[in-house]
Structure formats: structure tokens, C-alpha cells
Amino acid sequence: MVGFKATDVPPTATVKFLGAGTATCIADLITFPLDTAKVRLQIQGERQGPVQAVASAQYRGVLGTILTMVRTEGPRSLYKGLVAGLQRQMSFASIRIGLYDSVKQFYTKGSEHAGIGSHLLAGSTTGALAVAVAQPTDVVKVRFQAHAQAGGGRRYQSTIEAYKTIAREEGFRGLWKGVTSPNVARNAVVNCAELVTYDLIKDTLLKANLMTDDLPCHFTSAFAAGFCTTIIASPVDVVKTRYMNSALGQYRSAGHCALTMLQKEGPQAFYKGFMPSFLRLGSWNVVMFVTYEQLKRALVAACASQDAPF
Question: What span is annotated as the signal peptide, if there is one (predicted)?
Fold first, then answer.
């Protein structure tokens, strides 16, 4: 078997917490250009009607978006907002992924046989809790990734300056923009689709003896989770991106943002950036879950070797 072997010792909550944060940072470093391309495609045409948006589209497709950004803004533009993105993953993913098993055990009162309801409750709980803690990092990340749409010079000079400027100009509520509806809904949906799908597919493969608990099983489960998550979460994700990137007063609420999109651009607007979303989520899930599984086993093995008598 490739990688670290599974052990009979279950990983502690601390191991899962640290492992999740580290694994998601590694996944973000690898897939961040796809996330930036997704954001640019999602906000494209938001101030135009559907006909004008198609006619004047600056970005066309995943590869076209990436090539256009490199040509007009330089290669570094693909990693705009990376610092905030890594800050987000260390706080956000550590909670929503690292605490998922613990919360699931809480809902099942320690039972090993968790129903689909317990999986969904655990995913919704950790997803919503993570948003409440890490929302400012997500707002700053999206603003950096989308800044070419704002026109003129650089929107913010640094990550720290972005936090300060948003707090000064929009109040502290500006840093938690979208936390009450679009991002809570999006992350509850994403967390359920991502973690629950991965959990259920992996359990099914293992119980049916189709695969063993190693890299091929983790890869298959993660790829399927990424595909399911993209289909379910894309509409909420587009609204979240538009709402968090909007100027003060542009939209009254997330619902108003969604209604404006529907009226001006049609229902297809809710799946703008679908391909980069899938490429990003599919690859991100594979890298994250495979790394997370291996990190958990490595940390458990390291702890066990320290406790072992000489």
C-alpha cells in the first residue's frame, strides 16, 4: 500500500484539527489559480444585461481566463488574495473539517452507526461555525481576486491594509459581509455535500470490500465529492461571490443580489464559472482529502512513537 498505513489508534481531535488546516493550505497552494479564475468568471457581467454580458465578455472559459489574466496583469495575478486564502483555510477548514467527526459523534452520542441525518447535521454545524469565525478572511480573499473588475489602480496595497480599509469604510460589519445568509448557506451546503459525500462513498466502498482504506479509495471518494459539491453549491457560490464583492449599497441583501442576477442575466448566471469551480473543487478535494488522510496517520504514528518505551 502506498502512503502511511491505517492504524487501530483513532486520531485525536487535535490531530484532525491541525491536519485539516495543513492539508487545506496545501490544496489551496496548488489550486488557487483555478479559484481566482472562477471568481473572475462569476462576477463578469454583473453590471450588464445578458446580451451585453455575452457580447463584451472579457474572460471566456477556464484556460482563456487564466491566459488573459497572465497577459494583462502578469502571472502573480493568479495568486491575488493567497495570504488571506491561507489565513482562511487555517481558521475555516480546521473547524469545518477538523471538528466534523467530533460533532458527528456528539449527535450520535458516540454510536459507531451514524445515519445520514447525523452526517448532515454535523456538516451544517461545523460549516456554519467556521463561517462565523473566518468570514473576514473570505471577504478579503474575494476582494483581492476580483479587483481587476473594480477599475483603476490597486484596490488594496496589502492584506492587512485590506482588513483596515474595509473596517474603516464599511464598519466591522463589512468584514462579516454575507455572514448572515449567502456564506452561511453556501458553506452549510458545501460542507454537507463535500464531507458527507466523501464520508458515505468511502464507507460504502470499504463495507462492500471494493477498495481498501488507502490512496485509491481516498482519491475516488474525494473526486466524487468534488463533483457533487460543485453541482449543488454553484448557485449559492455565485451569489456569495457577487454579494461579498459588491460596493456598499449595490445590493440590499443576498436575496436581492440573486433576484437582480436572475432578472438581468437569466438563470444560467447562477452557473457562471461552473467548469473552473469543478476543476478547482475536484482537484482541491483530491489533494486535500488524500493529504488529510495521510497527515492524520503520520501524526498518529509520530505521537505513538514518542509514547513508545525504549
Answer: none
Q: Exposure pattern of 225-244 as b/e (b: 16+ CB <10 Å)?
A: bbebbbebbbbbbbbbbbbb
Residue 204 confidence (pLDDT): 92
- Please, which residues have CB within 8 angstroms of residue 5's CB and are 6 or more apart in sequence? 297
Q: Read off the pLDDT of residues 42-86 as tens digits, 9 standing for 90 and up.
A: 777 655 444 344 334 577 777 888 898 898 888 988 998 898 889
How deeply is 249 buried, as exposed, middle or buried, from its count of CB atoms within 10 A (0-12, 13-18, 19+)? exposed
Q: What is the pLDDT of residue 106?
A: 87
Cell matching residue 269 = 448566471
Task: Judge if pTM exceeds 0.85.
Answer: no
SS (H, E, C) 241-292: HHHHHCCCCCCCCHHHHHHHHHHHHCHHHHHCCHHHHHHHHHHHHHHHHHHH
Query: Cα 253 to chain center, whole Å?
Result: 22
Which cell goes with 9?
Answer: 489508534
Cell of 111: 454510536
Between CA 56 and CA 45 the distance in angstroms is 8
Quote the cell numbers at residue 99. 471538528
